[in-house]
Amino acid sequence: MYLLPMFLIGALVYGQVGVNNITPKSTLDVKSKTTDGSAAEGLIIPRVTGNSLKAADTAGVYGDDQDATMVFVTAPPDPASRTGQVEGMDSRGFYYFDAGTNRWVKVILSGTNTAAVTQLLCSSSTHIGTLEATSPAAGVSVTIPYNGGNGGIYSELIVPSIGVAGLNAVLPSGTLNNGSGTLTFNIIGIPAVAGTATFNIDLGGENCGFNLTVQPSSSFPDAVDVTVNGQTRQMMTRNLGADPTLDPNVMVQGIFGNYYQWGKKIAVATAYSTSSTISGWNTTNAPAGSWNGATEAAPVKVVANDPCPAGFRVPTRIEWQGFVSASTVSNVGTTWTANSSDFSTGKRFVNNGNTLVFPATGFRNYPSGVSVAHASNAYYWSSTESAGAAYSLWFGVSILEPANISGSNKRTYGYSVRCISE
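Request: output the structure for the sequence above.
Response:
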């Protein structure tokens, strides 16, 4: 009680405040308590989400009086909310409020370069997934090589389609390689009509364009009603990345879809990828909470990482359990032998009067991406994690386990994804 009045008197007289010291040398002078590493030292800036800052923008919380306020953004706002003060807020990091421009500005490390390349090679681009008129883009991405990267940083880039309206090519913020590398754009939105969607890319002082074909709308539903834990929900009729023009209940290669690593948005392989090692396979785990920003009982989609289209997300373990419990399950196909060229096997789930077929996609092994157990079993990710691993729906010819967790469920495996409504 004696020190507090003295501290306040010193602050009033000298206009300077010291923490862990009595001779502050500036307005605020913080000194570490320990030097031997026995305790955490440092200053924790307020941590907020981008969505909360968007809500504050709507409420008029930040203005001239808050100029130079600093926060740490733990997750960017939803893409549709990145307007006004949070326009351009596309990743985690430190931001300060600039009242002059009425924007939150990201703090960039000193010494970093603005992104520059000597060539963008759209003519050598590759793409994953298929687009169908009037259906949400799901599991579709385009990878563009570049040369002459300078190691500089770039902000999120959103490129609208022309020719066929309704799509956007989204490049998350990142850092260029020094020299050659690739840029992967995730395609989102709903194409209005069939035809050719064109995307004109301008990045690092270079520009180029690529085209994607939008197939005519099919007569097959994209999602059907299912019962999950006593509730009526919608589940997509295809694996992410499957050809939306094909009958989802007829076993062919085109309905097997893409493979995803847990917690990540971009597919790492397709039904048409080589069955052998995939060059550049990522062996780094996505952090906890990458797909579910809340609890398993009340999940919240992490839009920045979840590969499912708008209105859908990766199911939780509890949702998989509820779906299986409410379904009648039978096998599709008779071979059920590991064979990377066999596309005839899977499981048929009849739920709420609707039929959904889950192909026996096998999985992509975690160290190298090589195809394993294709046509003999399958793993479908959930959004629920556990101690560096993650849960999944797992099945084989005589096995159905909707809550499997084992050492084999490393987050860097490539598994299939089937989306459920939010």
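The mean pLDDT is 89.
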